[in-house]
Amino acid sequence: MDVFDRVEELIAEIGAATAPTPEDVEAFRIKYLGSKNVLKPLMGAMRSLPNDRKRDFGQLVNRAKTAAQEKYDALRSAAATTEDSVAGQGLDLTAPAEPLPLGSRHPVALTMRRIVSIFERIGFAVAEGPEVEDDWHNFTAMNTPEDHPARDMQDTFYVAEGLPAGPNNSAMLLRTHTSSVQARTMETQKPPIRIIAPGRVYRNETISARSHAQFHQVEGLYIAEKVSFADMKATLLHFAREMYGADTRIRLRPSYFPFTEPSAEMDIWWGLETEHDHRITKGTGWLEILGCGMVDPAVLENCGIDPEKYTGYAFGMGIERQAMLLYNITDIRLMFENDVRFLRQFASVL
């Protein structure tokens, strides 16, 4: 057989080749593209050809090589597709996938969102401020005396030197309440002011089942003309009934805070139906949930608001305390330990 005819025959053979499995594809590669492929011996026959035919023969052999490479690529791609299809046989593509573990909101976040939502519905806006605060906004603007125990190192975390001081070169500290947000808001906004200030606060306290060195607060402030104690009581009654039920009863007891006058503690009627009720209410049935009062005129004056024209009320509550009541949590430390067994209990809570 003429060598030209042999190459033409191989080209036709390559074009008609099939390889349904990966093993057949590999056999095709070895035969036509391997180191000992069937085209190599034909190149040796070129030496015996007349010079005027060598060029045509070389081009024909190159065409065979190209055809073999293209055919191999096509067969390999087809075999891979077939393998994937076979591997997918027997699978029910309509079956639900394996469920992925879902996270859950933290009880503090759930409670904070609930409180914020209640006050937003009656016109309060959310205000925020820095957690590293200066002494002036945290204490002085809030009418806290220089000799007040809260300023002591035993009660406040003062920040190490290196940060810029606040107004009048006041010391920097981790805020002990979100009242500092109220001070900053009163400095920058004109009445009427109606805000709530949720956030993390810090106090140098011994960590126990009922107290922690870090916790969260929501504080509220309303300043306008002719704001009265009755306005505050109605607002807090609305909050208590939205938070704990429509039949919730409240009571206000006289108290003292440097930044409000008069001041009060607000209790809700918790009841005495169980041993747990007796324990958390100390046998009274009443449970303290927040502090409140009319904004002291000195605070308004410190922040540049005319106390002769405007009055206002303020209140504040610990979010962990509310969360412990809502979800019957007996130890505040559970909220800061990131134990997934504890957190998974809130996976279904929206």
Summary?
The chain is built from twelve helices and nine strands. It has 350 residues and is α+β, with helices and mostly antiparallel strands.
Number of domains: 2
- From the 3D structure, determine the CATH topology of the largest domain: BirA Bifunctional Protein, domain 2
**Helix vs. strand class:** alpha+beta
CATH class of the largest domain: Alpha Beta
Number of strands: 9
- C-alpha geometry: elongated
Q: Please tell me the overall pLDDT.
A: 84
CATH superfamily of the largest domain: Bira Bifunctional Protein, Domain 2
Order of SSEs, N→C?
A: HHHHHEEHEHEEHEEHEHEHH
User: What fraction of residues sit in β-strands?
Assistant: 15-25%
Tally the helices.
12
Fraction of helical residues: 25-40%
Main sheet, how many strands, which sense, barrel?
7 strands, mixed
- What radius of gyration results from the CA coordinates? 40 Å
Notable characteristics:
2 domains, BirA Bifunctional Protein, domain 2, 39% helix, alpha+beta, 350 residues, two-stranded antiparallel ribbon
Give an overview in words.
By secondary structure, this protein is α+β, with helices and mostly antiparallel strands. It has two domains: 3-88, no CATH class; 107-346, BirA Bifunctional Protein, domain 2. The chain contains twelve helices and nine strands. It has helices at 3-16, 22-33, 40-44, 51-88, 107-120, 135-138, 179-188, 229-244, 275-280, 297-302, 319-327, 340-343; strands spanning 125-126, 132-134, 172-174, 193-202, 214-224, 250-257, 260-269, 286-295, 311-318. The strands form two sheets. A seven-stranded mixed beta sheet has the order 1-4-5-9-8-7-6, with helices on both faces. The protein is elongated, with a radius of gyration of 40 Å.
